[in-house]
């Protein structure tokens, strides 16, 4: 008996997936819960298990193809000699997800998946029937609407090709990549194919890496960045951390510089709440967040991830350090949930433990600010009394959305952060 397994619902708001890798081939016999393929959504990667035992008859799509939820994924010839499992597969548990950062951006239109052999649900009406204006309301999930804001696309102008005329992520990508009217000579500026030889290796940009690339491209195209650099004397903070580090270790907590810096930023935001904000592009409004939900860029085997620590303003440095240690470890292991990888209001990114004097970070849109933290190094400094002393120095290099944050505000905000880091006893007196 033939059975067609459809793309399951793998998360709230997810209406389509990208095939990253097939784990089986036509002719293979698979057991219940055996991984059929690895898929990527706008937030995570995960394996899709088989709901039944049987022989693989057909695979729908190739790696890199985009498939909608509830469209055919795999056709199986069922093994009727085995006990029948539950009739419908459950979505993979969030804890098994391998997360991916975060907002998608403009890229080449996704290649359409092969049409299934059985008759699918009726196609969305063409022409005026799929025009949002004729429907009176634009049918799109919250995730699609967020994607539209990130791409700078008015979702109301995008014809929907999904079920019942719903606008999909693929519809947005197509609309965003549509060339703007230009003189015929503009074709000369189109990207030319890149030649390669037998000695070269072509690596498809797929899965999480493609999502990261899309996010970075959207951020640069949507938000006019500027970076403001300030030199910080970390000497006192180095001393305080060195004194507290053994006590934290005795409690099972690894105490790095990041929770100190995060707490200083949170305290500074009391004077500059507009830095803890996100842009609602569709409404042309700035949403100033009441909670300091900080994202932290984490390097993982699957690429850059941004796990989120919520309510930083209500937590002590030690509590932040403990939560960061747990969440960052689970993020690197691919066990952070979708919720833990979304919804940040401000991001901190640091490669200081690797090296580097200065960086100009790209915004994690729709946020309006991000803080780059660079290496702390000993340097000879001229002090106020003209003496020369060895100090622990580092540069902070935050980037801001210039549509919202003016240079003067950025400078004043970072000055407060600088004063707090150079005098850590001020914010260490706070229990939260």
Short synopsis of the structure:
The chain is α+β, with helices and mostly antiparallel strands and 432 residues long.
Point out poorly predicted stretches: 84-137, 180-188
Shape: elongated
The amount of helix comes to: 10-25%
Rg computed from alpha carbons, rounded to a whole number of angstroms: 25 Å
Q: Output the CATH class name of the largest domain.
A: Alpha Beta
In words, what does this structure look like?
- The chain has 432 residues and is α+β, with helices and mostly antiparallel strands.
- It folds into two domains: 93 residues, Beta Barrel (OB fold (Dihydrolipoamide Acetyltransferase, E2P)), CATH 2.40.50; 221 residues, Chloramphenicol acetyltransferase-like domain (Chloramphenicol Acetyltransferase), CATH 3.30.559.
- The chain has nine helices and 22 strands.
- Strand 15 and strand 16 form a beta hairpin.
- The longest helix has 16 residues.
- It is elongated, with a radius of gyration of 25 Å.
- It starts with a strand and ends with a helix.
- About 15% of the residues have low confidence.
């Amino acid at each position: 008996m033939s059975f067609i397994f459809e793309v399951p619902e793998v998360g709230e708001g997810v209406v389509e997936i990208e095939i990253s890798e097939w784990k089986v081939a036509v002719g293979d016999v698979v057991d219940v819960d055996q991984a059929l393929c690895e898929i990527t959504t706008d937030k995570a990667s995960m394996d899709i298990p088989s709901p039944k035992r049987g022989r693989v008859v057909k695979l729908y799509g190739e790696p890199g193809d985009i498939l909608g939820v509830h469209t055919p994924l795999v056709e199986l010839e069922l093994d009727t000699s085995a006990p029948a499992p539950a009739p419908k597969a459950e979505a993979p548990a969030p804890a098994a997800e391998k997360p991916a950062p975060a907002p998608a951006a403009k890229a080449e239109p996704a290649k359409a998946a092969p049409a299934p052999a059985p008759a699918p649900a009726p196609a969305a009406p063409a022409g005026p029937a799929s025009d949002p204006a004729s429907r009176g309301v634009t049918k799109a999930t919250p995730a699609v609407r967020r994607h539209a804001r990130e791409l700078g696309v008015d979702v109301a102008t995008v014809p929907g090709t999904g079920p019942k005329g719903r606008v999909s992520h693929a519809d947005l990508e197509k609309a965003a990549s549509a060339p703007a009217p230009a003189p015929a000579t503009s074709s000369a500026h189109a990207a030319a194919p890149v030649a390669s030889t037998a000695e070269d290796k072509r690596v498809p940009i797929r899965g999480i890496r493609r999502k990261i690339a899309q996010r970075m491209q959207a951020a640069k195209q949507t938000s006019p960045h500027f970076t403001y650099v300030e030199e910080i004397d970390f000497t006192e903070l180095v001393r305080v951390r060195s004194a507290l580090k053994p006590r934290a270790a005795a409690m099972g907590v690894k105490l790095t510089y990041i929770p100190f810096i995060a707490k200083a930023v949170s305290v500074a935001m009391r004077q500059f709440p507009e830095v803890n904000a996100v842009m609602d592009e569709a409404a042309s409004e700035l949403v100033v967040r009441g909670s300091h939900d900080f994202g932290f860029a984490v390097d993982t085997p699957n690429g850059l991830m941004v796990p989120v620590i919520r309510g930083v303003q209500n937590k002590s440095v030690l509590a932040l350090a403990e939560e960061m240690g747990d969440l960052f470890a689970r993020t690197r292991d691919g066990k952070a949930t979708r919720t833990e990888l979304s919804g940040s209001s401000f991001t901190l990114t640091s490669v200081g433990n690797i090296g580097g004097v200065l960086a100009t970070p790209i915004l994690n849109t729709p946020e309006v600010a991000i803080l780059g933290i660079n290496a702390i190094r000993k340097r000879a400094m001229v002090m106020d009394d003209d003496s020369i002393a060895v100090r622990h120095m580092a540069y902070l290099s935050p980037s801001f959305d210039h549509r919202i944050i003016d240079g003067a505000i950025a400078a004043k905000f970072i000055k407060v952060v600088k004063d707090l880091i150079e005098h850590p006893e001020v914010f260490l007196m706070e229990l939260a």
